[in-house]
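Q: What structure does this chain adopt?
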Amino acid sequence: MTVKNAELKISAGLPSQFPSDGMAQIAFSGRSNVGKSTLINVIMGRKSLARVSSTPGKTITVNFYEINREFYLVDMPGYGYARRSPEQKKQWSKLTDGYYTADGSHGTLKAVAQLIDLKTGPSADDITMMEWLSESELDWFIVATKTDKLNNTERKKALDNLGEMVDGVDIIPFSGLTGEGKENILKRILLAVKSKK
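A:
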């Protein structure tokens, strides 16, 4: 896939701001600081399309990046950030719960890319999210980030452990440093975008 046009279309702080134009959407889910912004920048070939925050969990918005005027990459706000106030946590829940309903994404959510930090392994929040995705009717796959931080033995063990947790779910290793996995992620996104489901 050649990325001819990529731009931040909407930064939604309320479910009412989600786009309703019928374009396919691929959501990126994961805990704060797992590397969602880095992933989006690397696979789109842009250095600063998605802003990489120096303060994890600082921004609570759902960011819609319009790609080639054909579909959206949807950067969900990171979860599991301990320093959030109760009010911020309430806002996070309202936004994410609102998005994952058919009404919120207007039935155009084609797949969810669940990011897992391969070095630290799945957190309790990651496991909860994966269990929810498994029970949902959504198409989803895992992007195992930060693979460059492990040696070959550690990497194999971590990927094997992850595979045992989510039998039958695609797992794509990714490194923002080396670009490993970029093409496989793009292929998986295109497959979902073109799905008739």
